[in-house]
# Entry
Amino acid sequence: MRAQDIMHPEDAKAIQAIKSVPGYERLAKKLLRLGTEAQYKGENLADMVQVTPQSFPDVYAPFKEVVDRVGIKEPDLYVDNDPMIDAYTYGETHTFIVLSSGLIEKMSREELKGVIAHECGHILCKHTLYLTMYRMMESTGLLLGLIHRTLFAPLYFALLYWKRKGELSADRCGAVVVGEEIYQAALLKLASGMKESSGQLYRLVEQGKEFEALKRSSLLNRIQQECQCIFYTHPQPCVRALELNRWKMSYAYRRQRIA
# Structure
């Protein structure tokens, strides 16, 4: 699989805009080389359980299937003791993926593969490199309050906008690996926190259409809804579901599904 096969157009445009910031990419790579990756690896080894063929083999097996399908170097995989449904990835030269215990317990095997494929999609598209600066600025913000947003507002908001669009590319990777319907079921569980979601597979898609209609109904509604998500790191679940439902009609999706 190639990054261009799944990358959302807005994701590609946003990355180009970030690359145009003088010195940004060089600084991000330097931060990784200076030990950011090693710091996270130490934390993962100290606080989580690493998944291997011998440790959590029922998790490792679908993980290995996804890595081989996407065609990336196998990242480290960890399980975090967290009842929330969550997953994330980080690293450029030594990548890793973290899955929460709540995610593993509530997802079916195929849904879990979809979520893992989403994280592998981030690695394939090299999102982790550009996340370095965002996370550094966010960490600085925890110490300095709103100072980083006033000093670096243009870059900070550009990174947030890109991160939301990058999630759409990663969603496409998940859908290609397990199929759009199964990935929709995973999104529904991510949004609801429920273990079972039978009988309402496309509920989020319908809500996405209602959400779009609400934004189109007046300029005030559009401004309100756009401003509401300006600090979001992820698109709203209904937006993700609707975007994916539309992409499944494309030639790119069908070609990747039969690849």
Q: What stands out?
A: The chain is about 70% helix and 5% strand. The mean pLDDT is 86. The chain has one domain: 3-257.
